[in-house]
């Protein structure tokens, strides 16, 4: 059985374009909140691995969320930030 992946792309100043790929079946089976949190954790780990401490620290300031449910036909979904400074 072939595994289909979906790309979660962050839409936020400074972080725009950061991508995280997960199996589509998994993305559909978990809550949007847990998938957003998992993506934030992945971002922090990535930035720490590459010694980008300021970017890593900034991830905690993001208010990331999905605007709609993920569907089986999706290939890319956007994880948006709407913090006070990024309306």
UniProtKB/TrEMBL annotation:
This is Uncharacterized protein.
């Amino acid at each position: 059985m072939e595994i289909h992946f979906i790309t979660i792309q962050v839409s936020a100043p400074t972080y725009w374009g950061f991508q995280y790929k997960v199996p589509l079946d998994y993305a559909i089976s978990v809550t949007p909140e847990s998938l957003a949190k998992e993506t934030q954790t992945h971002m922090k780990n990535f930035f720490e691995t590459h010694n980008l401490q300021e970017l890593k620290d900034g991830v905690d300031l993001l208010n990331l969320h999905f605007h709609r449910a993920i569907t089986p036909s999706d290939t890319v979904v956007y994880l948006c930030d709407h913090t006070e400074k990024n309306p």
